[in-house]
Predict the 3D structure of the following.
Amino acid sequence: MQMICWNYAIASLLCFYWFKPDLSHVSPSNTPWWLILSLGMLLPSVFLSLSKSLQTAGIVKTEVAQRLSVVLSLGAAYFIFNEHFSSLKLIGIGLGIAAVLCIIYSHRSSHTQASSGSSGMFYLVSVWVGYALVDILLKYTTGLGVQFSVALNLMFICAFIFSLLYVVLTTKQIGSSTNIFWGLCLGVVNFANIALYVKAHMLLKDSPAIVFAGMNILVVLLGVLSGLIFFKEKLKTSTSLGLGLGIMSVLCLAYAMIV
């Protein structure tokens, strides 16, 4: 949690220098505080829920909950952002979800899972709903126009303040030098992740489903490829099928953007 806390410190600084928000015009009436405070609390809370879910429900169930949050995001793309789903988009999304399930299935016996009681179910649901809410609210920030960069910067600052309060109250310290250092390194990657994700939503403002699905599918595919290349994991039949379906899904979604 100390690393998570300090990652938001560097993320807020990078956001300020990259997007150059005009913080001089921040006002109680014109600033979307509900959005800023919601994301400021959600971002570190989702990290914490993910950790608790891994401890209580196990890695496989947590991975399922995290990746299938895309189903809620896609529902939001249709019902909230009024996106039109062409047949090609639907095929790509369906292939992507099938790919994720195949890859998760291939890992079902590779990890020792913890017993999942009521607390495990609570954290699984928190991960599932939390990741989808973050996706949806970040998409919403892209529609704020000139206030987008201000909201993003204040969101990181709030996340840092909330997580710092949590760390101080639970550990009575602000963090060890090692955790602060790695937290700052994590912040660079985390900022790049969110900044590029938001940029994708801005460039594809009429196709949020492609961003929601594409990101989640590619995360799983790149994770599997990393396991094969760097950790020398064996390629199972279901993993191979998942990779093939995932590649077909990404191609369908990419082609849907240009037709």
Q: What stands out?
A: The chain has one domain: 2-258. The first helix runs from residue 2 to 19.
